[in-house]
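Dear H.,

Thanks for agreeing to be a second pair of eyes. The structure we're designing against is below in token form, covering all 262 positions.
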């Protein structure tokens, strides 16, 4: 990936302290407790800038902005910036003067949130560097893979889509719907609910009384009562009226009572 021609600022902290640190005696790491934390060697402002792949930690004067020291960081975590083993607010930074000489100094933040921002700013920068490198490799491998497959339409090329099945489904749906007023047909095996029309002879303005819910008795049940007759208390014969009926005169057709005519 080519180096970018401009420098961007990714983090600024208004107060940071610089400490002289003793040489590391063992490989277990640096300890801030071995420094003179109450006597910092320098105090000022810190800026983290990025130019291409490299990040720069710059220690500057608060008022004039004069550069005190600078630490180029090519990898994080790495040898350029190390955390101490006994605190999250202190780090060991490898500074350079531009002539090939370097030294290790300790830096510390008063606020723990400032140290968190310092750590995250470096992590985000190098995460972006890794992603840019992966994208460049993918682009390079895609160019070496050969020409891409062209699936676009050529000039004048057309396609035909058959939607006949949709029309058939619509026809079946329209046929299955009952014609008329929109009432749904009764379910199979069920009894339809009849609508009783109003009587034709009813004059307008007259409200018929509600129909009684008393069960209706058919005419055949009234004419032919098949239930056994109740015993008469007076002992008279139930066929007395028929017995007392006058006999017809000779040559006349016997008359049938009106109530038995059909």
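And this is the sequence the design step returned. I haven't edited it by hand at all.
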């Amino acid at each position: 990936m080519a180096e970018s021609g401009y420098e961007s600022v990714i983090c600024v902290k208004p107060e940071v302290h610089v400490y002289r640190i003793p040489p590391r005696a063992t490989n277990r790491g640096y300890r801030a407790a071995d420094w003179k934390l109450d006597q910092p060697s320098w105090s000022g402002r810190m800026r983290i800038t990025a130019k291409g792949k490299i990040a720069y930690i710059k220690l500057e004067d608060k008022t004039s902005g004069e550069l005190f020291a600078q630490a180029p960081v090519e990898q994080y975590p790495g040898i350029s910036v190390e955390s101490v083993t006994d605190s999250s607010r202190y780090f060991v930074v490898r500074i350079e003067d531009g002539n090939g000489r370097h030294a290790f100094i300790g830096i510390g933040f008063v606020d723990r949130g400032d140290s968190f921002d310092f750590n995250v700013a470096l992590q985000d920068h190098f995460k972006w560097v890794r992603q840019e490198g992966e994208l460049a490799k993918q682009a390079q491998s895609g160019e070496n893979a050969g020409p891409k497959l062209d699936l676009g339409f050529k000039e004048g090329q057309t396609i035909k889509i058959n939607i006949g099945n949709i029309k058939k489904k619509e026809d079946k749906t329209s046929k299955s719907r009952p014609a008329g007023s929109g009432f749904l047909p009764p379910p199979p095996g069920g009894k339809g609910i009849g609508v009783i029309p109003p009587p034709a002879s009813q004059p307008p303005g007259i409200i018929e009384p509600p129909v009684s819910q008393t069960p209706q008795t058919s005419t055949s049940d009234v004419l032919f009562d098949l239930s056994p007759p109740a015993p008469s208390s007076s002992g008279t014969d139930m066929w007395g009226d028929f017995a007392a009926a006058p006999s017809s005169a000779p040559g006349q057709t016997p008359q049938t009572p009106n109530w038995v005519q059909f």
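Two observations from my side: Helices lie at 112-144, 164-176, 219-223, 240-243. The CA atoms of residues 152 and 158 lie 11 Å apart.

Warmly,
E.
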